Amino acid sequence: MKRRHFLGLMGAAGVSLTTAVTAKASSSADVAGMPNVGGVLFDASRCIGCRKCEAACNQVNDLPKPAKPFDDLTVLDATRRTDAKSYTVVNKYVPKPGENPVFRKIQCNHCMEPACASACFVKAFKKTETGAVVYDPSVCVGCRYCMVACPFNIPAYEYDKALSPRVMKCTLCYPRLLEGKLPGCVEACPKEALQFGKRRELLNIAWDRVTANPDKYVQHVYGEHEMGGTSWLSIAPKPSFAALGMDEGLGTTSAPELTSGALAAVPAVAGIWPVLLTGIYAISKRKDKIAEEEKKAAVEAAIAKASADAEAKLAEELTKAEVANKRRIEVEVKKALEAAAKDSEGGEDA
Amino acid sequence: MFNTLQDLMLHNKSLTYVLMAVVLICFIGFWRFLTGREERNRRY
Amino acid sequence: MSTENTKNGSLFTPFNIVAGIILAAGIVVTIMRFTMGLGAVTNLSDNNPWGIWIGFDLLCGVALAAGGYTTSAACYIFGFKRFHAAVRPAILTAFLGYALVVFALNYDVGRPWRLPYPIFYQQGTTSILFEVGLCVFIYLTVLFLEYLPAALEWKGGLDKYRGILVKLTMGLTILGVILSTLHQSSLGALYLIVPSKLHPLWYTPYLPVMFFMSSMFAGLSMVVFEGTLSHKYFHHKMDEDYNANYLDLQFAFAKGAAWIMAGYLAMKLLGLSMDNRWHYLFTGYGAWWLFEVVGFVMLPCYCYAVGYRDRNIGLVRLAAPWTVVGIMLNRFDVSLIAFNWQLSSAERYFPSLGEIIISLFVVTVGVLVFRWIVTRMPIFYAHPAYKDSSH
Ligand code: SF4
Ligand code: SF4
To answer: Which candidate in A27, A57, C160, C304 could, as Cys together with C258 as Cys, close a disulfide (CB 3.0–4.6 Å)?
Structure first.
């Protein structure tokens, strides 16, 4: 009985805790945003799949040489993703069979509210004003939760290293940006499919281009709002971004907002549980005590009753005994008298 | 002022975690204060 | 297992041989893991960074170690004092469970010697994983302190420390429930950040609540299940107090588990409705979801209920392992089967032999340590010298 009660209570409290507190962690009034944050605009309709950006990225980041050289375009026949040896890859898609292929460059999107940063339990990731989301391998534990969390499947891991594996992902060439240089890929692109600039200006450029050519472009700038927005923006020829392997269903909720409800429940549990549990403990203890006292009282009463009963019985026995005794005495007396009477009669006779 | 929600939350949560520890310790102290004289004049 | 003790001294029992093989294989894989890297022994990939070392060792391990907080809370907080004798085995199991979870994490993370970093060096407080790590760390300490009196009684002569610990029981129990609430639910909350990767039937804002509720009946079921096993193998170690309340406890826990499972089922249903996920029920994943929810929650719940009503201990003892399997199935679904559901089958994950060996290795180590302890320390019986103390 009691158990069911407490379980119901705990369940109820748990539910209300985690669901009632889904309000945003804090009002966005406290967040200034990054008005001058940098970014890159990628126009898939301009990309010719030459892999020059891949080669440049490999070079400026000192990554290991790939098995097939970068001018070997047969690599494009397979769909690839970023891995520990390549921060960026270009993939080929054929949205409508028989028509020209479209190419898309994949790399870290440098989210405005990075899921990787939200997920990392040692703060290894940081969003910077340059736009770059940078990673610090000197604290990384290698739990790989950042890889789980990234909605774009970008971070890769050095699974083949035994002692010092790192998470590997595009840095937006953060060191080069600090030197005032362009990211390697942007500099190398022969077709101006990549353009570096302030994100807010890039957004204007993107929308101008998209709205000016409504027949050509999907009327959407990918990265403007996806997962709270990204520094890397993309526009694509029709029919869709999905045709280029991009997830169109990510929604606009940023990673910190997705977890803020659960995080808000943590201090609530720490604040409410001790009060509730100690209260239940005190109640059950009090109940025990009362039960104990009742038991004690009942035992005393029982003892009292028992002794009273015993006394009564004794008295009864006594009276009974007395009666019996009396009778016996009477009988004896009678007998004696009779005997005496006989004797005297006999005496008279004798 | 914080530039990202992430930074704001980092700040808020870090402080909150510390306060949680403080609160839990205070609970113990207050409970002892609250029930400290119970044994002597317990009258239910 | 049973044969190890006293009666027949042979080391070469079937159990010992199997355990020996697993240990040997585990040591080989351990050496490979730490000399050649994760890639050499696992099937982990950039798309599937978490495998069974997280899905089984961490998620299932923590859920199934929930018996510690449920039993001690029932006994000390909610006043089920007559289940007192069950607390120690439950605490020991929980302590070993958590210790093994942490042990297994050393295999999974890339640089295990940095595991203290998030707590002592640089705190990423926005991460749910930070919360899990912190709670698991503190809770492991709490469980150790709760278990310690048994070890001290065994050693003897340290009554002063034992006395201090026993006084702390109440506080430790409450702290244990708080920490368990937090990290059990947070293991579910880990997945709140991936709405695009986890199948909509499993992704719900209720994930933390569901993980917490299921941990409660997981813990109760584990106590029942483990009690049945222990009874078989360590019967000679148990005292009257333990044996006298053993049936009562199993029935009471069956009742509790059935009732919480009903609540869990309700949440599953309401979760579907909240996010309008009904149409997914008619897909392949929907069938799998129903298999999990009907086959491994609803049916064992009913089995528990009938077992309790009819006082049929057989049914209760059947429902317990059934529920445990259901919990494991659920954790596998969330972390592996319904995770990355949109990727092509070539990109999906399946555990490698090395990963399976390490998981078996960890479980085997747990069973061996448990056996070592209960055959020596006062776990299933009260130590004669401390019989009357209420700990
Ligand atoms: S795309 Fe992924 S790795 Fe890059 S910032 Fe966003 S969450 Fe992080
Ligand atoms: S793998 Fe490293 S960077 Fe990624 S979340 Fe874990 S500690 Fe942070």
So the answer is: C304
Which residue is closest in CA terms to ligand 1's atom 5? A110
pLDDT in tens, A178-190: 999 999 999 999 9
C contact residues 235-274, partner A, Cβ 8 Å cutoff = 252, 255-256, 259-260, 263, 267
d(CA C369, CA C96): 8
User: pLDDT-derived band of residue C238, with 50, 70 and 90 as boundaries?
Assistant: confident
Question: Phi/psi class of residue C8: alpha, beta or left (left: φ > 0; alpha: ψ in -120 to 50)?
Answer: beta
CA-to-CA distance for A102 and A93, rounded, in angstroms? Answer: 5
The Cα–Cα gap between C68 and C259 comes to 19
Q: Which residues of A touch B33 (CB under 8 A)?
A: none
Give A149 Cα–ligand 1 centroid separation in angstroms: 9
Q: What is chain C's alpha carbon radius of gyration, rounded to the nearest angstrom?
A: 21
Residue C375 in contact with residue C67, Cβ under 8 Å? no
Q: Report the Cα A269 to chain-centroid distance in Å.
A: 15
Q: How far is CA C231 from CA C96, C97, C186, C201, in A?
A: 19, 20, 34, 39
The token pair that represents C292 in the structure block:
């999990």
Contacts of C178 in chain B (CB under 8 A): 24
Q: Which residues of C touch A262 (CB under 8 A)?
A: 128, 185-186, 189, 192, 208
Architecture per CATH, domain C18-382, reads as: Up-down Bundle (1.20)
Which residue in A169, A196, A193 sits closest to A183, CA to CA?
A196
Contacts of C51 (CB under 8 A, 6+ apart): C42, C43, C44, C336, C349, C351, C355
Give residue C313's identity as a one-letter amino acid code.
I
Q: What ranges do the domains of chain C cover?
A: 18-382
Inter-chain contact B23–A278, Cβ cutoff 8 Å? no
User: pTM (2 decimals)?
Assistant: 0.86
Count of CA atoms in the C-beta half-sphere (13 A) of A349: 6
What is the Cα–Cα distance from C292 to C387, expressed in whole angstroms?
Answer: 44
Q: Which residues line ligand 2 (CB under 6 A)?
A: A 119-120, 122, 124, 140-146, 167
Residues A24-82 have pLDDT tens digits of 434 456 788 888 999 999 999 999 999 999 999 999 999 999 989 998 888 888 899 99
Minimum distance, in Å, between the CA of residue C46 and any CA atom of chain A: 5
Cis before A239 (ω within 30):
yes
Q: Which of C77, C119, C125, C132 to probe by mutation at the B interface, max B CB count within 10 Å?
A: C125
CA–CA distance, B17 with B19 (Å, rounded to integer): 5
Chain A CB within 8 Å of residue B18 CB: no
